[in-house]
Specification:
The chain has helices at about 15-30, 35-50, 50-55, 65-75, 85-90, 90-95, 110-115, 120-130, 145-155, 175-180, 200-215; strands spanning about 60, 80, 100-105, 135-140, 165, 190. It is of the alpha/beta class. Strands 1-6-5-4-2-3 form a six-stranded mixed β-sheet, with helices on both faces. Helix 2 (about 35-50) runs antiparallel to helix 11 (about 200-215), helix 4 (about 65-75) packs across helix 11 and helix 9 (about 145-155) packs parallel to helix 10. It is globular, with a radius of gyration of 18 Å. The model has no long low-confidence stretch (mean pLDDT about 95).
Length: about 220
């Protein structure tokens, strides 16, 4: 049986593939109201998801981009809600400024405390992060309970994030958690609705680290 195909890729060069993809995204997205720097995030989110509706649904606090760049350049940590987010983030650009990428959800003390309190590990991991990662960028792509807990801690003065990237995906509390984030007076990046996920959180952080690096 002949499994050969007539299709040939336009290019096999990684940089050229990315450039062509971004050009296609810009053409297909058309007119938008994002700033130039916000669009860098939107573009990478669409590139990661191939979802223009998701890209258009992104919402930025007016200070979000500046807050993210400043946090990265001052060496603040990135707190991921799950390992998938941690793995996807480009570490060298974070480490260049003295930062690191942390995830607490599988820490033994977090698992033990979650079991003792009969609650989610995501909630307990955010409580731990709030104690240990002042001024961090929180990248939440999976767990609405993590985002809701972070919002609660901010309101109570127990957490002081530099930026919240709140884009959890799902059916239970995902959209609602983002609606609550929109009410918060701290820098945030989020989106409207159920869509989101770890790739969206990763793409957002990576876009911000590229913007930080561009400043020198």
């Amino acid at each position: 049986m002949d499994f050969r195909t007539e299709f040939k890729p336009l290019t096999v060069q990684p940089q050229e593939i990315e450039e062509k993809s971004f050009a296609m995204i810009t053409e297909e997205l058309g007119e938008h109201s994002f700033t130039e720097e916000q669009y860098k995030v939107v573009q990478r989110v669409i590139h990661a998801s191939a979802d223009f509706e998701l890209g258009r649904s992104l919402v930025f606090h007016p200070n979000a981009i500046r807050a993210g760049i400043d946090a990265i350049r001052s060496g603040k940590p990135i707190v991921a809600d799950v390992q998938m987010v941690q793995v996807g983030i480009s570490k060298p650009r974070i480490q260049k400024y003295g930062g690191d990428v942390r995830v607490y959800i599988s820490d033994p003390d977090v698992m033990e405390e979650a079991k003792r309190l009969n609650t989610t590990r995501a909630i307990i991991s955010i409580r731990k992060a709030a104690r240990e990662a002042d001024g961090a960028i929180y990248a939440i792509g999976n767990a609405p309970t993590a985002l809701l807990e972070l919002i609660r801690l901010v309101k109570e003065g127990q957490a002081k994030p530099g930026l919240i990237i709140g884009v959890p995906v799902g059916f239970v509390s995902a959209a609602e958690s983002k609606e609550e984030l929109l009410k918060l007076d701290v820098p945030f990046v989020t989106n409207i609705g159920r869509k989101g996920g770890s790739p969206v959180a990763v793409a957002s952080v990576n876009a911000l680290s590229l913007l930080a690096e561009r400043e020198g």
